[in-house]
Amino acid sequence: MENELNGSAANPNATESYSESYFEAYLEPLPLKIFRFVIYAVIIVFALVGNVAVCIISSRTRRLQTSTYCLVMNLAISDIGSVLCLPFLLPELFVGNWLMGEAMCKLLKPSVVVFNFVTTNTLVAIACDRFRAVVFPFVMRPSKSETRLIIAILWLVAFLFSLPSYGAMTVMDFPESPGFYYCLDVFSYDLEKDTFYRRIYTITMYAVNALLPVLAISGLYLKITATLKHFRLIPEALRPNRSCSLNTSPNSSPRSSVVNTNKLNMNPAGAESVSESILQSEGFIQAFETILRYIRWSASLRRTVGTEVKMYDGAIPTNVSVAAQDNSTGLSEDDPTSYLEPIALKLFRFVIYAVIIMFALVGNVAVCIISSRTRRLQTSTYCLVMNLAISDIGSVLCLPFLLPELFDGNWMMGEAMCKLLKPSVVVFNFVTTNTLVAIACDRFRAVVFPFVTRPSKSEIRLIIALLWLIAFLFSLPMYGAQTVKVFPESPDIYYCLDVFSDGDTDKDTFYRRIYTITMYAVQALLPVLVISALYLKITATLKNIHLVPLALRRSHSCSLNSTPNISPHSSILNLNKLNMNPAGAQRRQMLEKKFLRMLLTVLIVYVLCYLPFQTLFLVYEFNPGLGYLNYMQALSEYLYMIVWLPNAINPICYGCLNEQYKRAFKALILRPRSYFQSVRLRRRLSKTVITDVQLKDIAA
């Protein structure tokens, strides 16, 4: 058994009975064990001393506090963490017996996975940072706070991906080796389910922790290398004539790396030193060794665990109760409860819900505060964005009361809360969907018909009030139909269901299907079609806008009578009027495109997260038998969890894709006290100016 845990090769002549001779087929010689132990000791000493020195130097040297060096320091911290776990893993590696207990089993091995995940994806972040510095040198470098946020996200994502491993790790002993304990990841005590879950988790971790990072880093460094080759040739061409015209290559994109390097090398004397400093980034290619080392370690670890599971195919662990064995095998394929979610996956779902609630509440409350206190964010579209944030807050406040039913399958909140909570979630989702439609209509008016009078504040408030009223009216049948039911098959379990007709099952099915189809149409299908059509027209119009300033620059004149057949309400005529000042036209186009990019991102996230569950719910309504298929319950549970993701993602989209929100978020997070003081000061100044103007008017 010791040799199996060490990943040694099995004897091909061993029989299926796994006799004692099988386990003793390979005994590692003592000199090799000593050699391995010395190598591990050297690795621990060098890793600790070297990485601690890197952290001290990076924190105390100003020149080493850029974004890239901060990521390098994060790499050193993750290496320190993984090396600190290694001494506790050595007894199992050399003796083949886990001696650290249940708690250390659940802590150590998943923590190593977390540290390795952070190491791998920090290398990806470093490659992305070097890619930005070399290929797009004029793009603003990330600030310290942004780099810290990236590092925090790396650790959070690593922890979330490792949660199943934290829940699944357990200490087991087997009848064939009564004196040995093994720290294994057991996702289910049903062998088939355990194999299925472990393979899914292994494939996922291999993809996000090895394959995708290697592909991403390879692509980024190939582009960096190609750019640096062009970069080194430019100073030699610039030295003879001491000039550089960007107009010599009219076909090159203004964002291309060649144009950027031409700009960088306008000073030929400093170009060589700049290129040499950037070429130092090629040293990061050595990071591939760490990734390859992890791939080999992961493969050997998974081979070991897989061998153990196959070896004890027919054995029952001694610490598994009979009830657990009966529950894992006694349910039939047609029983709707045939899927029992492992505790590790339940824990994973619970943490995801907790993260969604936290991010959604903090982010959307911040959006409301910023939108209400910033004058530039009080236009019609931003008021609708604030309404979107309010509806997200309302739905997220309902989520904690729904979690007990989601995890326990039992409604414990009573009749009144049943009639209040679930219909309220429908109201908030209806408002969210149709607020996105209202935002699309507002941008359609602003781009296609820019001279149509924009709606006033009172009109926007009326539109928002109508959205909430219509949502409430469409949800009224659900407020009346929700009730708590108990079935004879499970007298101790209560269900919060929508019952449209209590006595007649056929009528109940008919009414429920009519209501489901209606809500799917007005809450999912029609809004998506309308929004898609509006944004397609907006995109086509913006392409026409881009050509108008060029024509105006050549002729320096524009006659609106030169196109007598154009309708006075057409977008082309309006755009010609709007772009009579060519200098401001490009800026307006750029701002509009950035704003539309933010709105489209919010829309795409919402459609991708919301439509799958709504479609599955509609299919369930007309095919109830699908709910009895294996793992369909798990699919619906995870799709329902994805429905809540936009509530947390939307504020992140606002902060990343909109400069005004980005600046306001930074000020609110980094300096909240000074932010509120500056807002009050601006309000006082504006009131003072208005009062002075009124007094002057009265005096005149």
From TrEMBL:
It is a multi-pass membrane protein. GO terms for cellular component: membrane. CDD domains: 7tm_classA_rhodopsin-like. Keywords: G-protein coupled receptor, Membrane, Receptor, Transducer, Transmembrane, Transmembrane helix. Residues 50-229, 363-654 form the G-protein coupled receptors family 1 profile domain. Belongs to the G-protein coupled receptor 1 family. PANTHER family: GH23382P, NEUROPEPTIDE Y RECEPTOR. This is Neuropeptide FF receptor 2. It comes from Stylophora pistillata.
